[in-house]
Design goal:
Blueprint lengths: L13 H43 L6 E5 L2 E5 L1 H57 L1
Antiparallel strand pairs: 1-2
Length: 133
C-alpha cells in the first residue's frame, strides 16, 4: 500500500474551532438539563407514591407534615391538595426542561450543519490547491 505523502491535510479553521467549542458548551448544558430533569422525575415519583398512600387513608386518619425536625398535624384534604399541587409544579418543570433540551439540540444540529458545510468548503479548497500543484 502506498500513502500519498504530499496531500494537504484539512485543518480546523477558526470558524470550525468556534463552532466545536459552542457545540461542546451546548452538550454540557444539555447534560446539566438532563440531570435536573432526572432529579425532577425522582421528586415526581416520590410525590406519586405519597399520593397513592394518602389515597389509601380514610378521612379519620391523622396526617403529619414534617417541617424541619418537627411533625405538624395536618388536615388530610389539605395534605392531598398540597401533594397534587406539588406534582403539577414538578410536571410543569419537567416539561420546561424538555423544551430547553429540545431547543439546545436544535442549536447543536444547526452547528453540525455549519461545521459540515465548512469542512466541505475546506476540502474543496484543498482539492483546488492540489490541482494547481
Amino acid at each position: 500500500l502506498t500513502h500519498p505523502t504530499n496531500m494537504a491535510q484539512p485543518t480546523m479553521t477558526p470558524e470550525m474551532e468556534f463552532e466545536a467549542k459552542r457545540h461542546q458548551e451546548l452538550s454540557n448544558e444539555i447534560q446539566d438539563l438532563t440531570n435536573s430533569r432526572q432529579k425532577q422525575l425522582s421528586q415526581l415519583n416520590e410525590n406519586t407514591m405519597v399520593k397513592q398512600e394518602m389515597d389509601l387513608i380514610s378521612g379519620e386518619a391523622v396526617v403529619y407534615k414534617k417541617i424541619g425536625p418537627t411533625l405538624v398535624k395536618q388536615d388530610l384534604s389539605s395534605a392531598k391538595d398540597l401533594i397534587s399541587k406539588r406534582m403539577e409544579f414538578v410536571e410543569r418543570s419537567i416539561k420546561s426542561l424538555d423544551k430547553k433540551v429540545e431547543a439546545k439540540q436544535g442549536e447543536m444540529q444547526k452547528i453540525e450543519s455549519r461545521v459540515q458545510a465548512l469542512q466541505e468548503k475546506e476540502m474543496k479548497r484543498l482539492q483546488q490547491a492540489e490541482q494547481k500543484n
